[in-house]
Amino acid sequence: MDEVIKILKTLPFWEHLTEEERAFALRNSAIRRAEKGSLLYSRDCACLGLAVVISGSLRIYSLSPEGREITLFRLGAGEVSVLSAACVVKQLSFDTHMSAECDSELLVMNAEALASLTASSIHARCFLFERASENFSAVMQTMESLLFSGFDSRLASFLVSEYERTGERLIPITQSAIAERVNSAREVVARKLKQFASEGLVETKRGGVLIKDADGLRGKIE
Fold first, then answer.
1. What is the pTM of this model?
2. Residue 167 shares a structural domain with residue 106
């Protein structure tokens, strides 16, 4: 219970709630653990509510009519998802799914409590719509990249971002995992990495990619 309160206190609207509202929020929030690959939310499941990532990583994605998964964005520790509360925010009408990319832990405030708080507290309501806007902006950035950026640019951008995030030239990731991250097929990723290797930009390793020329990769980003 102490951990639940600690996390709830990090929400910007918490200090503006009444004691009764805080007690209500506390009763309706819990720590949830999710194993790697487990589905946490989809339109076919019950509305999850507000989700705060404590540890691990969550992937929000959509499914094409052919069943292809399109990654929309990811959430890491400290980040909040409200797309999992689409039953509360009626404007979020598009179909999304949320799964754990690795063993994860999150705080979940159930949808009924979230709806009640946003109805009684303007601060909670503003927070909800602000996060909904941020989540939707992440979706739009992904769609713009898919529609208007060439695959060279998308792959190079991913490799550079991973290099800058970790500071390591060797990125320990499989080609299948890269394909999932950049919304493509493994065969396409393999072909493009082979081209990048021939240009001296990368070197493919077993289970990883070695960045040899980060500036050269940056030059491919549109």
1. 0.74
2. no
